[in-house]
Structures are given as C-alpha cells and as structure tokens.
Write a structure and sequence with these properties.
Blueprint lengths: L1 H11 L21 H26 L7 H21 L3 H23 L10 H21 L3 H28 L1 H26 L4 H27 L3 H27 L3 H14 L2 H25 L11 H5 L2 H15 L4 H6 L1 H7 L4 H19 L1 H12 L8 H27 L3 H24 L3 H10 L1 H8 L6 H26 L2
Helix pairs in contact: 2-3, 3-5, 4-5, 5-7, 6-7, 7-8, 7-9, 8-9, 10-16, 11-13, 11-17, 13-18, 13-19, 16-18, 16-22, 18-19, 18-21, 18-22, 19-20
Length: 512
C-alpha cells in the first residue's frame, strides 16, 4: 500500500516537458457592464439635475434652466437609467430598479386620483407620464429577473393595473363622450400597453397569458359593437360618432387585432411575433423611439410657438402645421432604412435564411411577417407625435379639431406600408446591411423629391401624375380631414409590387 501511494505520488508529479494533471475548468464570470453603468450614472445625475430645476421652476424660484430644458434633462436621464436597468443583471441593481418602478407607479396613481386643486383628475396630465415610466422600468426589470416568485408578483401587478385602466378607459368612454377624450383614450391605450407587457413577459405558452390575449380580442370586439350600436341605433348616434365614436371604434379594432395577433398560432402571426421580438429585445427599437421622441419634442416646441403667436393666430386644422413640417419628413427618411435594413440581409449573412426557406412555411409568409413586424414598429415609433398633442387638452388648453388625425392615420399606414415594403425588397437583394440601408435611404429621397418635382413643373399633366405619386401631398390632403381614395392607389400599389418582387427574390434563392 505504501509503495502504491508513493508510485501515485510520483506519477502525479509534474515532469519536465509534460503537462500536469488535468484540472476542472474554472468558473466563468460575466464581464462587468461598464457601458450600462456609465450611462446609468450619467442618467442619475441628469435626473437629479432636471428634477431640481423643474421643482424650482414650479415653485417660482428663479433659476437659469428653464422648464423645457429641465424636462429634457429628466427625459435623457430616465433613458440612461432605463438602459442601465435593461442590461445590468446584478441582483441588487435590478431590485433597486424594481423599487424605483413601484414608487413611480404609486406616485402616478396618487396623482391621477387626488382631487387637487379642484376635482379628481386635475393632476392626470402629471400622473400618466409616471405610469408610463413605471411600465418601462418594470419591463426592464422582468428582462433580467430569474426568481419565479418575484417575477410572478410583478407580472400579476401588470395584469391588474392594465385591466383596471383598460376597463375604466373603454367602458367609461363608451358611456360618457366627454370622459373618453382625452382621459378615457389615454387610459385605454395605457392599459393595453400594460396587458401586452404582461402577455409578452409571461409568454403566450402560459395559460393565463393566452386567456388574457383572447380576452383582449373579446374586449375589442365588444367595444366595436358598442361603438357601432351607439352610432347607428341611437338618436344622437351621428353626434357620438363624430365626437368620440370613431376613435372608440379605432381603439376597439386595435384591441381586437393585437389580441388576435398574440393568441392565434397561425404561421404568419408566429413569425410576426418573432420579428417583433427581434426588434424589441434589441436596442434598435428603443434607440429609434428615443431619437424620434427627442426630435418630436423640438417639433412640438416649434408648433407651440406657432399656435401661440399673437400676430398670426392658428387656423384649423392646427395639426397640419404640426405634422406637415421638416422634422417629421426628415425623421421618416432616416428611420425607414434603420428599421428595414437588417430584415433579410441579416438572415442571409448569418445563414438562417436557408433554415427559414426549408421550414414548412412559404416565401410569402416569411416576407409578410417581416413586413408586418417592421410596419407595426414604424407605427409605434410615430406614437410620440400623438402623445405630445394630448398635452394640449390635458394642460387645460382649448380643444382642437382632432378628426384630421383619423384621416392622417389612414395615410400614414398606407404610405408607411409602401416605405417598409421598399426596405424589405432592398434588404432581400444583399447580405450587407449597410448597402441595404443606403438603397432604402436613396429610395426615400426619391419618393420625397416627387413632391418638389410636382410643384416645380409647369406641365399640368405631369403635375397631376406626380401629385398622385407624392406621399407629402397625400399627407397634406388628409390633414385637412379629407380621404381621397385615388391618392391611396399609388402607395398601396407600390406596396404590392415591392412585396411581390421580394417573394420572387426569395423563390429564386430557394432554387439555386
């Protein structure tokens, strides 16, 4: 026994020129999130600075930083903190952000419910941003939280909060038109965001999340029936439809489509949800929304200066001067290539396109899913423009004619579909995302130049043709509250042509 021990000891000793005994692999440790923590520190500093400056302005103390810049510092600071919350997996950090979200949520609820200075709801304009910020931080927290009990409690909190806001907004707005605009509308949209966040973080494979998705569709269908019933079966139906019924119908359709998209297991819906996840589980969508929100803020400030000008008072529809401006056009030209350049180029570069083409789905389903996901993201990016407009009635300003926004929404969907389909087509032509983005950017410039060509030419025939092709002329006409079907023909035809060519490109790659 002693000789065996001595032999083992000698054999295990390291000999010259030979490797030592094999040891178990060392534990791997994640890299420190240096960039998120740096942005988080900068965001915290800006949040404190902007909060103090805003407080001093509200109480009337003279400070060098005006209210607008204080709010801007607050927004940038919150963006930095949100980035940190989304990418720092440390347990102490994420629990701290959970506490921050709960405090902001409670503060928003209190602001929405306290009867100050006159009646309940007077602080609604300040409470809604708190509810929205709390939702963003809760989603960022759930992105990294791995303890089942804490995740379940947080998700059920989203469910309860979203359900209450959706029911109050939709059915309260169905009963009282004056409540629906703008309070009921905001509650219904915010409740929808909370419920979608619940379903998204829980997963549609979960039974409760699946039934909630079905419930969203059912609520949407019920709201549609209520809106149509009150519009056509009551004595004041026409007045109700013009004032709030049309918007209530639109919100009901939104609930119905989102609920069906989340619950149905059709290949088109499954692939669309996959593509939307690729957008919103990466920084692309959030950075795009942040950039668009910042530019929208400057556009909104210029719009306020215009409508409050005592020399030239605004003329209805005032939303035309807000949306038909340089900032929206510039942002659209830049955002469409960002959203579409990776759709099929990245699939080709990574080799996953072959997997998709051999899967039991046809090429049209693949193309339509990517097209729908990019179009939905494009429309979501536009939300800040509409949310800024809500600040006018919420702050006690005079009501404005909102009906041009409904017709503009139709034009926005039609023209957005043509832009996105063009981007999807260029993305199918190359593996290089940069090349795809440059081609789409050039296409956007060409479509924008049609407007200037139409108003510079003296040939009446060519002017008519180019006016029908110009998406800016379509925007201008719809912002006057008019929908002319023949102006929608070109963007819809362009969408069909680009989607058809993209399908043919994928079919040619499949048979190579």
């Amino acid at each position: 026994m002693a000789s065996d021990a001595i032999t083992d000891k000698l054999e295990n000793q390291k000999r010259p020129g030979l490797a030592g005994p094999e040891l178990a692999p060392s534990l791997l440790r994640e890299d420190e999130p240096v960039l998120p923590r740096t942005l988080g520190m900068i965001g915290a500093a800006l949040l404190i600075f902007g909060g103090m400056a805003l407080t001093f302005n509200l109480v009337g103390w003279p400070v060098a930083v005006r209210t607008g810049w204080a709010i801007f510092a607050l927004a940038v600071g919150l963006a930095g903190l949100l980035f940190h919350a989304a990418f720092d997996r440390d347990i102490s950090v994420r629990r701290l952000y959970l506490l921050f979200a709960v405090v902001i949520l409670a503060f928003g609820v209190v602001l929405c419910l306290i009867p100050y200075p006159n009646s309940m709801g007077d602080q609604f304009r300040n409470g809604v941003p708190c509810l929205l910020v709390a939702l963003l931080f809760l989603i960022a927290f759930l992105r990294n939280e791995d303890e089942a009990f804490v995740r379940d409690v947080t998700q059920r909190g989203l469910l309860v909060g979203g359900g209450i806001m959706a029911l109050v907004g939709l059915f309260g707005g169905s009963i009282r038109s004056d409540f629906f605009l703008p309070i009921g509308l905001v509650y219904s949209l915010l409740g929808l965001l909370y419920l979608v966040a619940f379903v998204g973080t829980r997963g549609i494979s979960d039974d409760l999340a699946y039934f909630i998705a079905i419930g969203l569709g059912g609520i949407g269908l019920l709201v549609i029936l209520i809106s149509l019933g009150r519009s056509f079966l009551t004595a004041d139906g026409s007045t109700f439809f013009v004032t709030s019924g049309s918007i209530l119908l639109f919100v009901g359709l939104l609930y119905l489509f989102i609920g069906a998209g989340l619950a149905l297991d059709w290949p088109l819906f499954i692939l669309t949800r996959r593509e939307l996840g690729a957008f919103f589980f990466s920084p692309i969508a959030y950075l795009t929304m942040l950039g668009f929100s910042v530019l929208s803020w400057f556009s909104y400030i210029a719009f306020l200066d215009n409508i409050f000008d005592p020399i030239t008072p605004p003329i209805e529809p005032i939303v035309r001067t807000y949306l038909f401006a340089l900032f929206p056009v510039f942002v659209v030209i830049c955002i469409v290539p960002i959203l579409t350049m990776r759709l099929l180029s990245e699939e080709q570069r990574s080799g996953t396109l072959e997997v998709l083409l051999t899967a039991p789905v046809d090429e049209s389903t693949i193309v339509l899913s990517k097209f729908l996901a990019a179009l939905i993201t494009y429309l979501i990016v536009w939300l800040p423009f509409g949310l800024y407009l809500l600040a006018i009635p919420l702050s006690g300003g005079k009501p404005f004619d909102y009906r041009p926004l409904l017709s503009f929404s139709v034009a926005l969907i039609a023209t957005g579909a043509s832009f996105v389909s063009m981007g999807v087509f260029f993305s199918s032509l190359t593996r290089n995302q940069i090349a795809s983005g440059v081609l789409t950017f050039a296409g956007m410039i060409a479509l924008t130049y049609i407007y200037f060509a139409a108003h510079q030419t003296r040939d009446t025939a060519w002017q008519t043709v180019l006016t029908h092709m110009s998406y800016l002329d379509l925007w201008y006409n719809t912002l006057e509250g008019k929908i002319v079907p023949r102006f929608l023909l070109f963007p819809l035809s362009l969408t069909i042509v680009f989607l058809f060519m993209t399908i043919k490109v994928l079919e040619s790659r499949k048979w190579r």
